Amino acid sequence: MQIAQYTKAQSLTEAWELHQKRHSVILGGCCWLRLSPQRMIQHAIDLSALGLDTIEETDGEFRIGAMTSLRSLEVSAALECCTDGALKEALRHIVGVQFRNMATIGGSICGRFGFSDVITLLLALDADVVLYKGGRMKLEAFAATGAGTDVLTHVILSKAGRGTAYASLRLNATDFPIIACAVSGSAEAVRCAIGARPSRAVVLRAVRQDAAAQGPAKMARQWADAVSYGSNMRGSAEYRRDMAEVLCRRLLERVMGADV
Ligand SMILES: Cc1cc2nc3c(=O)[nH]c(=O)nc-3n(C[C@H](O)[C@H](O)[C@H](O)COP(=O)(O)OP(=O)(O)OC[C@H]3O[C@@H](n4cnc5c(N)ncnc54)[C@H](O)[C@@H]3O)c2cc1C
What we know:
Helix content is 34%, strand content 26%. It is an alpha+beta fold. The protein has three domains: 45 residues, no CATH class; 104 residues, Uridine Diphospho-n-acetylenolpyruvylglucosamine Reductase, domain 3 (2-Layer Sandwich), CATH 3.30.465; 96 residues, Enolase-like, domain 1. A five-stranded antiparallel beta sheet has the order 4-5-8-6-7. Strands 9-10-11-12 form a four-stranded antiparallel beta sheet. A hairpin with a 6-residue loop joins strand 11 and strand 12. The chain binds flavin-adenine dinucleotide (FAD). The site of flavin-adenine dinucleotide has 32 residues, from strand 2, helix 6 and helix 7.
């Protein structure tokens, strides 16, 4: 990876202004950027001096800076507790500890990767993102549009009482997932995200009472059928659909517990 011009931004305003120029690129952990076909970056904008690498906790939510490493999220006891271990489960398969020490939550979301374990889980958790100019919005809406020339500053996770579970299927440890599923359930609703289809994760919803009445097997079949799948070197569309049903059923059983 070659960088023609590099700026360590001293403020978010500076980062945003620089990012309005054509061919400027915001640097996350650079784990993906350095592999991308665009080997020459005209103007790289480094956010590492802006204090965006912290996890702040309030009574109602977690405010996670865009430069927080995946590893910091993985080892956060508060986040582990709040997500019933689902966040740790979603992250622990990603390459290795050294890699997760560098890769950031901001880069993981802005990359909008189809294979993303991170986006799959955060969609099930109904996370919000904060853009410097665009303000706070649902990750679900952001996933469709991307950051454009804006700068992602934070990811917000609500602490709203819910149960959460995550599962993925990989051919080999540390490889990209063939399919990834996350389910999160509150007293009123159940939310499911199916990712690595291999395209980007989609969200499915049900009223909790309806999901309980249908039971995990029927609900999982319905959800798996509602989504489209593709084939690639890791698996066929048919296999992905079948595995999505299995994972969704298991996760629903865990999240809904005594209800079903
Ligand atoms: C070999 C390999 C295997 C991987 N396997 C998996 C896997 O199994 N599961 C999984 O979920 N992920 C996987 N990933 C993705 C990885 O977890 C990260 O999501 C990815 O590396 C991007 O994070 P980064 O911090 O390196 O971002 P970068 O590579 O630095 O940036 C990625 C993109 O986001 C933009 N960007 C970064 N931060 C911001 C910001 N604050 N505002 C606006 N734009 C921004 C950059 O300009 C760039 O376009 C893998 C990546 C690699 C390289």
